[in-house]
Amino acid sequence: MSAVSSGRYSRQNFILLLLIILQLDLHTVEGVWPLPQDFTRSTERYPLNPQAFHFGYGKQSVVQQGCSVLDAAFKRYFSLIFPDYTSDNLSVSEKKAFLNAETVWGAVKGLETFSQLVYQDDFGSYFVNKTVMEDFPRFQFRGILLDTSRHYLPVQTILKTLDAMAYNKFNVFHWHIVDDPSFPYQSRTFPSLSSKGAFHPMTHIYTQSDVRRVISYARLRGIRVLPEFDSPGHTDSWGKGQSDLLTPCFRRGTPSGSFGPVNPALPSTYQFMARLFKEVSSVFPDSYIHLGGDEVDFSCWKSNPYVRTFMHKMGFGVDFKKLQAFYMENIMNITSALNKTSIVWQDVFDYHERRSSLSVVEVWRQGCYLCEVRKVAKAGIRVILASPWYLDQPGPTRNWAHYYTVWPLAFKGTEEQKKLVIGGEVCMWGEYVDATNLTPRLWPRASAAAERLWSDEKQTSSLDKAFPRLQDFRCKLVRRGIQAEPLYIGHCKHEYQDV
Question: What keywords appear on the UniProt entry (predicted)?
Answer without folding.
Answer: Glycoprotein, Glycosidase, Hydrolase, Signal, Zymogen
